[in-house]
From TrEMBL:
The keyword NAD does not apply. GO terms for molecular function: nitrite reductase (cytochrome, ammonia-forming) activity. Keywords: Signal. One of its GO terms (cellular component) is periplasmic space. PANTHER family: C-TYPE POLYHEME CYTOCHROME OMCC, DISSIMILATORY SULFITE REDUCTASE SIRA. Residues 304-333 form the Doubled CXXCH motif domain. Residues 153-191 form the Cytochrome c-552/4 domain. The keyword Membrane does not apply. This is Uncharacterized protein.
């Protein structure tokens, strides 16, 4: 069977052919699925692109696609900016785009970023298509096709093959990856099959012990009289099919171990939170987040709905076409009625409750929150804009307010959460009270609760102490992970008490978050608290298993530095930057590390590289500005500190340091202006408020002083500095 060659198959895995020998109906269904087509060896049966010698020019690059002796090749620009010919080893997907995997060296596969648009010509397809803008055709761009971000072994393979083992050699920076099936096959979901086959051969098979992974149940939903929504007769049980099986690949997450199909999700992965730019501030998908984070926000997930209530597990297609599948649980007599659609004829559940976004230029993906558009947040009206393209925000808001509510419908919790999440993202201290009230209602999905808490604790750490402490006992690992992240903003005495408790958590994703937080706070705690030794060793092993990622090497470098293993730290910093020469966190951290040993010249070079590759990043501008201050080039420092302070990524510290620099260079009114603007942007920040008041006093600007003292008193009425300055005014 084409596409099922085994490469060093694991002894526990049988391969798809063995499964299909007994399960023909399921196998035939799978052969029509996207999972089957997720990856295939490149041959005439699967290659859809025009390899007749065609050329495609875009930006700085001209690529030629040709076939020779039954093999497929692409001649294109290499990392050195020279034309080079590469063999096409595999095709990657097939609709609406088919990518091609090129072997740049033995064992290393890269996803070429010019894809074949497989749509019919009438829909704009049947063409070569550049997946990103022309800037990526420059070999120096971080997303150039030969770089880390387009590497198949580290970034794609685990979810596009079965039984994948990376086998990366950090000494040689080479891969010797293996897998059982070249695509997403039976054992990707059902787990290793050899035990199952052996039990049948030995006639020891039983329904209580199938030898396969327990997938989690699919609840049956029933309608009851008077209720337009079908409900299950009992609560969902663990394990969760949506989380542990489908979610393993259909989620934006980081791996905590070599891919394994048998352990629960949170032992294998860390799920990304609802942060921008991955999500809009109302929780709607923005970047490619692969469904699970959206679905876990939904009322459906809460009710026990899982993927196979809507999708056939073997074809991947929905059980009924379009919105018909919605009608299996939501009575069309109510939800397709004019009262629900507000008279929109032909309204489609999917278009309003699962808005689409286009990825990779032509690929439409649906949001899986199944949310209700809300007048409380502008992003929530995105589905409406599909038809009402020219409508103003005001018109849409009024239209949504006037929309008839179904009797008994739940309050607009999502809209309230979205509005508060947006305000908290802007560090608006006035949103904390309302957000606290919403949290106290205890009605939010875990991801939404975590998103609020992690923003609130930055603004009001003392107030959030009790809430964050309580989160350490929550049943949901997502909440306990959030507590570990939030700890970074708590008072130091509380930080470590909380993190020490979570360091013993039974779930690997929580413990990994604790280790990461401790490394970013004060690595010395690992040596001061002997009970953290096991945590550090576990985290080191986790990072070693991911050494083909720059971030893992950065973590290992920090640990080696903590342990005074200086040559080891340098080795990991250098490997991180060999894998991705433009990895900004590694460049900034390596610069600090080198400076701590007096190597100012090399430290400065790391910052210069960071500025070259990440000039649009606030952290880079800030670090470079501080370097100029150390160089006593004060005037040269100002533009960089100003850019950092004005960036959308800025934090209060950037504005504070910028103001201090202006003051010291005698731009004193400018300094007060920066602090005043910072107060507007980050209301309630103590350093900004008190410095603004002190500077106004020193400048003898009575008007500015009154304004600054009043603002300080609004937030810190018992502060000694406030009382002192107030006394001077009186």
């Amino acid at each position: 069977m084409s596409g099922h060659s085994s490469v060093n198959a694991s002894e526990n895995y049988a391969g798809a052919e063995a499964c299909i020998a007994c399960h023909k109906a399921q196998g035939d269904a799978w052969l029509s699925s996207d999972h089957y087509q997720s990856m295939q060896p490149a041959d005439e049966n699967v290659v859809l692109g025009d390899f007749s010698g065609t050329k495609y020019t875009f930006g700085k690059r001209t690529s030629r696609f040709f076939e020779q002796d039954g093999e497929y090749f692409i001649e294109t620009l290499n990392q050195q900016g020279k034309q080079q010919t590469y063999p096409v080893r595999y095709v990657f997907g097939y609709r609406p785009l088919q990518q091609y995997l090129l072997e740049t060296e033995p064992g290393r596969l890269q996803a070429f970023d010019v894809a074949w648009d497989t749509r019919p010509g009438s829909e704009g397809g049947q063409r070569w298509y550049q997946l990103q803008d022309e800037s990526v055709t420059d070999p120096e761009h971080p997303f150039f096709w030969t770089g880390y971000y387009q590497n198949w072994n580290s970034r794609c393979a685990a979810c596009h093959t079965t039984d994948f083992e990376e086998q990366f050699n950090s000494e040689t920076n080479q891969y010797h990856s293996t897998w059982t099936d070249v695509n997403v096959a039976c054992e990707s979901c059902h787990g290793p099959g050899q035990e199952h086959i052996q039990s049948i051969t030995d006639k020891t098979y039983s329904s209580d012990n199938t030898g396969l992974k327990e997938l989690g149940e699919k609840l049956v939903f029933h309608f009851s009289d008077g209720d337009p929504i079908a409900r299950p007769q009992r609560s969902p049980q663990s394990p969760s099919l949506a989380l542990d099986t489908c979610g393993a690949c259909h989620s934006r997450r980081s791996e905590l171990q070599e891919p394994s199909g048998t352990e629960p999700y949170h032992q294998r992965f860390q799920l990304e939170g609802l942060d921008e730019p991955l999500y809009f501030s109302d929780g709607q998908i923005r970047e490619e987040v692969f469904v699970l984070g959206s679905f876990l926000q939904s009322k459906m997930a809460e009710a026990g709905v899982t993927c196979t209530n809507c999708h056939d597990p073997h074809t991947g297609k929905t059980l009924l076409p379009g919105a018909q599948v919605c009608g299996t649980c939501h009575a069309p007599t109510v939800f397709a009625a004019p009262e629900h659609t507000n008279g929109h004829e032909g309204a489609d559940c999917l278009d309003c409750h699962m808005p689409e976004r286009i990825y990779m230029g032509v690929d439409a993906r649906r949001d899986h929150r199944f949310h209700r558009p809300s007048p409380k947040h502008p992003n929530s009206s995105a589905p409406c804009k599909t038809c009402h393209e020219d409508a103003s925000e005001g018109w849409l808001t009024d239209a949504l307010k006037a929309w008839p509510k179904r009797q008994g419908a739940s309050p607009d919790t999502l809209g309230e959460w979205a509005a508060l999440n947006q305000r908290l993202s802007a560090l608006d201290v006035t949103a904390v009270n309302a957000a606290s009230n919403l949290l106290n209602e205890d009605k939010l999905p875990s991801l939404e609760e975590a998103a609020l808490v992690e923003k609130m604790v930055v603004i009001a750490p003392q107030r959030m102490l009790e809430k964050v402490s309580g989160m350490t006992d929550d049943d949901d690992p997502i909440i306990r992970q959030s507590a570990a992240r939030a700890a970074a903003s708590l008072p130091e005495a509380s930080q470590y008490q909380l993190l020490l408790k979570l360091s013993q958590d039974p779930i690997r994703s929580v413990r990994a978050e604790v280790a990461s937080t401790l490394l970013s706070l004060s690595p010395q705690w690992f040596s001061r608290a002997p009970q953290l030794t096991a945590l550090l060793e576990e985290y080191q092993q986790l990072l070693r298993d991911s050494q083909d990622h720059p971030g893992a090497n950065l973590g290992l470098a920090k640990i080696a530095s903590l342990q005074q293993q200086i040559p080891v730290a340098i080795k990991h910093y250098e490997l991180a930057l060999q894998i991705d020469p433009q990895h900004i966190p590694s460049l900034l951290s390596y610069s600090d590390f080198l400076r701590s040993f007096g190597n100012e010249d090399k430290a400065r070079r790391q910052l210069e590289l960071a500025l070259r590759y990440g000039s649009d990043m606030a952290a880079v501008q800030f670090s470079y500005g501080l370097q100029k201050i150390r160089d006593k080039a004060y005037q040269q420092a100002l533009p960089h500190l100003t850019k950092a302070a004005n960036s959308t990524e800025a934090i209060p510290r950037y504005a504070f340091v910028s103001a201090v620099a202006l003051w010291q260079l005698n731009y004193r009114k400018d300094a007060i202006t920066v602090l005043a603007e910072a107060h507007t942007r980050w209301p309630g920040n103590y350093d900004i408020l008190v410095t603004r008041a002190k500077y106004a006093y020193q400048l003898r600007d009575v008007t500015a002083l009154k304004t600054a003292v009043k603002a300080l008193g609004e937030y810190y009425p018992n502060d000694a500095t406030y009382k002192q300055l107030l006394g001077l005014l009186n």
